[in-house]
Amino acid sequence: MSSGRALSPVLLVGAGTGEATCGILYLASYLRRGGIEAFVRLWDGDESAGDVTQSFERLIARVRPKLIGISLKWFHHVDRALLIARTIRKIDPSIRIVVGGNSASYWWKELSGYDCIDHVILGDGEVPLLALCNGEEAPPNCVTRTPDGRPRRLPLAYVQRSTNTQDVYYSHFNEIFLSQMDAHSFSGWVAPGKGCGENCLYCGGARGNQKADFGRAKPFLRAEENVRKDHQEIASRTWQMRYDFAGSTAEFLGSTWAGVDLSRHCCTYFLWGVPRVELVSALAETFQRIYMVIDIGCFSEQQRLEQMSKGLLKPCAKDRELLEVIESARRHPNVEIEISGIGGLPFTSRERLAEELRLVERIIGLDCVVGYQRLEAQPGALVTEHPARFDMVTEAKTFAEFLGYFERREPGDVSVPMIRFKDKELEAAVQRNSDRVDALAWKHRDARKHVDLHGRTRLKNTASSVERFTLGDWLGSHRAPAKMAKEPVTVLRSVDGITLSCAPSVNPRRFTDPTLTQGDDGAILLAALAAFEKPTTVSSAVTHLGAKERLDPHSAREVIDHLVDGRFLQPA
C-alpha cells in the first residue's frame, strides 16, 4: 500500500572519494524510469570535513532533495559514509538519509543505531529504494525499527536473479549528472552479471556473505538485451568499457555488443580466472585496446593448489595454463595483461615465497604487469573472522575496530587493516618478499612508461580527446560562481584516460578549484600541447615556449616531462 507521498528529487552519492560505484547509476536510471527525479554526484574530491560540508550545502541548495542515498559498497569508506550522513543531517534535518551497498548490508545492525541514518537497504536496491521514494508502508529489504527503537531486519523479499532483472539497466544519462565533470568521471563500468559462487578465504563478498546479505548463493548473468541497453546508453559517453565478472563468454558479450561500434574504445576487464582464448580474441577484435587483469589468487602454485584443495580459493590456473594464456594474448598487439595476486596468504613457507618470486620474475620477463598486495582484513572474510585458524592475527575484525582504524587515518592515507602471521620470523620473511615483489613490479611499470627524452626527441600531441565547455557546465552550477560561469574550460584526455581541465582565463585569486589547472599554468599546458600538434623536437618546443610563454628552458622541459608522463605527448 502506498501513502502517495513521493520523495523526489533524490540525490545519490558515493561514500568514498573519487568515482562512486556504478551501482548509483543503475539506481538513478531505475528511479528515473519510475517517475522519480534522481541525480548522482559521481565524483568526490573533498578532503576535509569542511570541504564535505561546503559541497553538500551547495548540492542540497541546487537539487533540494527529499532523500539522499549514500552508497557504502566498500568497507574502507564507512567513516566517510557516517561523516556525510551527519553533515546532511545538520544541513537539513528533513532530508531522508538512506545507506545501501555490500558493506551497509553487512553492518546493517550497527549502522541502524546512528540517528543520522533513517534507513538501511539490504542487498539489491532498485525496488526497495523506489518503494521508499513512493512512500510505501513496507518497502522490501529495508531495516525497520521495533516500537522501542531497536533495528529489526526483515527477510530479503527482493533478490535479483536472471528472471527478474529485465528492468535494471542504464538510462537517462542526459539527465542524472549534475556536471560535465561528473559525466566525464564515469569509467564505463558495465555489470554483465551479479553475485559470486566461490568462498575465497580472504574475500568479504564471497558466497556465504552473498547469501546472507543479498539472498543469493549463485551468480547470474543479466539478460542480454539489458546489457546491450547499457552499451547503447554509454558508448557515446565514455572512452572505455570496464567489466568484472567471471561468467561472461565471448558469445554472451558479443551479443550485448551487437549494433554498438566499440572499435575506438578501450576495454579494461578484471577476470577472476584465466580467460578462454575465444574471449581474448573477441575482445581484441571488438576494442581498440584491451587491458586485461587476470587474478590468480597468489603467485605460488603450491600455495594456490593447497588453498583450492581445501575449498578456500576459487578455481585458478596452474602456472603452465597461465603462461599459455599469456603467450596466446601476445599474438594480439592491442592486448596488455596484468597478473594479479595476494601476498601473505595462509599456508606459505620460505620455499613457497621463493616460488612466488620466481613466477613474478618470469611474468615481468614476458612484459606483463604484476599487481600485488599483502593480505588485508575484509569484514566477514573467513580469515578475518577466524585468523587463529590460520596462525594469523588481524588488525580489525569488529565494526568498531574497522571504524576506529579508518577514523584514525591521516588525510591522504589509504591504508587498510592487515592480516599478518603470528610467527614473527615468518612474518618478516613474507614482508621482505613483499617488498622485493613491489620493487620489481614498480620498476617494471616505470620502465614501460619511460621515454628517454633529449633535445632531438620528436614528440607528438597524442591527447585522444579535446572538448570545450563553460566553467558552469564543467563544474556544475553548484560549484562554479555565477559571475564566472561563462569562462571557457578545455578538457583533454590522454590515451590512458587521464584528464586535464585547463581554465587559462580563470584567475586563481578570484576562484580556485583543485580539479582545474588555472591562469598562466593552464595557458602554458595548452601552449605546450599546441607546440607538438605536428611531430616536433623537444629543443624546438623549448625554444617556442620560451618565445611565446616566456618560459626558461628548465621550466619548459618540466612541462614537457609532465605531459609525457601523463601520455599526452608521446614519441612521434
Automatic annotation (TrEMBL):
<protein>
    <submittedName>
        <fullName>Cobalamin-binding protein</fullName>
    </submittedName>
</protein>
<dbReference type="InterPro" id="IPR006158">
    <property type="entry name" value="Cobalamin-bd"/>
</dbReference>
<feature type="domain" description="B12-binding">
    <location>
        <begin position="6"/>
        <end position="143"/>
    </location>
</feature>
<keyword id="KW-0411">Iron-sulfur</keyword>
<dbReference type="InterPro" id="IPR051198">
    <property type="entry name" value="BchE-like"/>
</dbReference>
<dbReference type="InterPro" id="IPR007197">
    <property type="entry name" value="rSAM"/>
</dbReference>
<keyword id="KW-0408">Iron</keyword>
<keyword id="KW-0949">S-adenosyl-L-methionine</keyword>
<dbReference type="GO" id="GO:0003824">
    <property type="term" value="F:catalytic activity"/>
</dbReference>
<keyword id="KW-0479">Metal-binding</keyword>
<dbReference type="Pfam" id="PF02310">
    <property type="entry name" value="B12-binding"/>
</dbReference>
<dbReference type="GO" id="GO:0031419">
    <property type="term" value="F:cobalamin binding"/>
</dbReference>
<dbReference type="GO" id="GO:0051536">
    <property type="term" value="F:iron-sulfur cluster binding"/>
</dbReference>
<dbReference type="GO" id="GO:0046872">
    <property type="term" value="F:metal ion binding"/>
</dbReference>
